[in-house]
Amino acid sequence: MPLLEVRDLKTHFRLQPGQDPSGEGAIRAVDGIDFTVERGEVLALVGESGSGKSVTSLSVLGLIPGTGFHAHGQILFQGRDLASLPEKEWLSIRGREISLVFQDPMNALNPVIACGEQVAESLRLHQGMSRTQARERALVLFKEVGIPDPDRRLDEYPHQMSGGMRQRVVIAMALACGPSLLIADEPTTALDVTVQAQILHLLLREQQARGMGILLITHDLGVVAETADRVAVMQAGKIVETATVKELFANPKHAYTRALLDAVPSLSKRPMASLTKRPTAAPPLLRVEALRTWFPIRTGILKRVTGQVKALDGFSLDIVRGETVGLVGESGCGKSTAGRTVLRLLDPTGGKVAWKGENVLTMDREALRAFRRRAQMIFQDPYSSLNPRMVVGRILEEPLRIHGLHKGKEAEKVAEMLEAVGLAPEYARRYPHEFSGGQRQRIAIARALITEPEFIVADEAVSSLDVSIQAQVLDLLAELKARLGLTFLFISHDLGVIRMISDRIAVMYLGRIVELADRDSLFASPLHPYTQALFSSIPRTLSGSGISAEKKRERIVLQGDVPNPSNPPAGCHFHTRCPYVMDRCRKEYPPLVRPADAGGLPEDPGAASCLVACWLHPGAPSA
Which of 123, 164, 333, 369 sits 20 to 30 Å CA-CA off 564? Predict the structure, then answer.
């Protein structure tokens, strides 16, 4: 008997008369699907944004939102039909026997409760643990999912964590009670490749230890190739193809499946645009010098400052007009903070940001408003960046009214931008909660583009999009860059996307850029040990239609946690996890320690015993 068996499931959403041009009265989000999940099996459910994947997961858990309702079908869990259960019986199943990793961690976490308490709450409710026991178990779970400095993070609130760290908290909550079935809705979307590899390893380890079944909903076909046993492809509320992973990638039968595979970004695919030639004489459009952004740590009843979280600690970067600079690094390394500080959405502690030679950090109100019309941001989390009380049309009209653009023709411009990002103009009358995560991200992109800016900070702009829409949006951004001369700082953890769209790539670790090179040079020969480890963690894909057969890579597994940003290591921040320091160079190179006052490491032979220990050393080998 399968662990989970879904038979002819139909989930519909009622529409109001004014929202129903077809006259059908309902949206058929899930329209008669069948699938099974066996014990110890990973079934991947893939498809475009809005195809019904997330609604399927919510239906299985009896969490159909808003005007949705279960129209037909059976949901058999261990032989028991969940579709007919009263709400009271659901409470003993959710979280204990079936857990869900939500797609949007910021919306899934309670903003006024500490993250550790949110994990401990489910342990007390379902496992009967005391407060002390639940807190200790929450601490273990935080360590298992790779949250740095877990003792302190237990007492932090969701808004104090990066998107990737919030996602790890949600995963810890889902694994807390050892469920029989784990439904993972885009569990690694917000994670960089190194943490993604850790999380996937953790999920598979838990699955094998407990015989747990996993329904994996994702648009990352590289993740599917590495983790899934079978794949179900979903389109417009129906499952159009089901096969084993090997069969699907080697010989996809349905035209829709082939189109999905062809759209996958790959390290071996040809990049979208040729490299921008960097002028030697012209000043950069944006120059960032020794930027520092520190956040105070307040403790005690009086909330006294007892330390500083050094999110940016000497960040420097030049960006010339018309180029795209990709910014990559682990979750929590300061990528999003860098993007927000550059646009002065966060006030820095020190350093300089020059826009066309003028210091952004000293601009008055009017100058800052003019700058922000020309410099826009696409935020990482579209749900929290879109006003839930405004329809999409008003959200997109707002920047036009603020800056006095397209007066009297705002509605026409809104319709034009919606079509440009692949959405129908009539969607302007809907609210953000009526869209899928990928559709909300396209709305956020439209809002950033509507003021016709010169410079855009794109913070994980395509991370929540399925591969086909991702390809469309990347094509759109590349076309706008060529036509309008746009300049991008493109922040992403997806190295396939970064390679396709970037001219130069900056690799960031613990508040600093550790390597900066043009795209082709960096991918052909990464020099810094951290860059090598980052590239080695990219999911290996299978050969087949749309999936390139990449040469074998030795995976470099970094030891230890990311250091605490409130007390980063001296000298090269990476030396505490560097595989050369830990192993190879101790054997191959004689001891050499740079004086601390020269910017090197402290005089501690245990911490530094080779040339590479301080990457800034002029004699360091290129590894």
Answer: 123
Beta bridge partners of 375: 455
**pLDDT value at position 609?**
38
Q: How far apart are CA 86 and CA 474, in angstroms?
A: 45
3-state secondary structure of 235: strand
CB neighbourhood size of 363 (10 A): 17
State which H helix or E strand residue 205 sits in. Answer: helix 193-210
Question: Which residue in 217, 189, 212 sits closest to 33, CA to CA?
Answer: 217
Beta-ladder partners of 327: 491, 506
* Sequence-separated (6 or more) residues with CB below 8 Å from residue 243: 230, 231, 252, 253
Alpha-carbon distance of 506 to 58, in angstroms, equals: 39
Mean pLDDT per 10-residue segment, the chain (623 residues): 92 72 72 93 88 89 85 91 86 88 82 94 91 94 85 90 81 90 83 71 81 88 87 93 92 90 66 56 87 90 87 93 91 88 94 94 92 91 86 95 90 92 90 83 90 92 74 80 88 85 92 91 87 76 40 59 78 76 49 37 37 43 36
CA distance linking residue 482 with residue 617, whole number of Å: 39
Burial (0-12, 13-18, 19+ Cβ within 10 Å), 371: middle
Q: What are phi and psi of 350, to 5 degrees?
A: -170, 170
552-574 burial, b for 16+ CB within 10 Å, e for fewer? eeeeeebeeebbbbbebbbbbbb
Which residue from 63, 68, 70 is spatially nearest to 8, judged by alpha carbons?
70
Instruction: Say how far apart CA 256 and CA 274 lie, in whole Å.
Output: 30
- CB half-sphere exposure, 423, CA atoms < 13 A: 29
| Distance in angstroms (rounded) separating the CA atoms of residues 458 and 206 | 35
**Rg for the chain (alpha carbons), in Å?**
25
Which amino acid makes up residue 115?
A: C
**Neighbouring residues of 67: CB distance < 8 A, sequence distance ≥ 6:** 13, 14, 15
pTM: 0.71
DSSP string spanning 78-105?
TTEEGGG--HHHHTTTBTTTEEEE-S-H
Type of residue at 525? S
Say if CB 256 and CB 238 are below 8 A apart: no
Which burial class, exposed, middle or buried, applies to 190 when counting CB atoms under 10 A from its CB (0-12, 13-18, 19+)? buried
Q: Kind of pairing, strands 286-299 and 350-355?
A: antiparallel
Residue 554 confidence (pLDDT): 62
| Residue 139 to residue 511: CA distance in whole angstroms | 25
Helix 163-175 / helix 131-144 crossing angle, nearest 10 deg: 120
Which phi and psi angles does 435 have, rounded to 5°? -115, 160
* Of residues 185, 56, 164, the one with CA closest to residue 466: 185
307-337 burial, b for 16+ CB within 10 Å, e for fewer?
A: ebbbbbbebebbbbbbbbbbbbbbbbbbbbb
Task: State the pLDDT at residue 612.
Answer: 40
Q: Pick the closest to residue 460 from 562, 326, 347 (CA basis).
A: 326
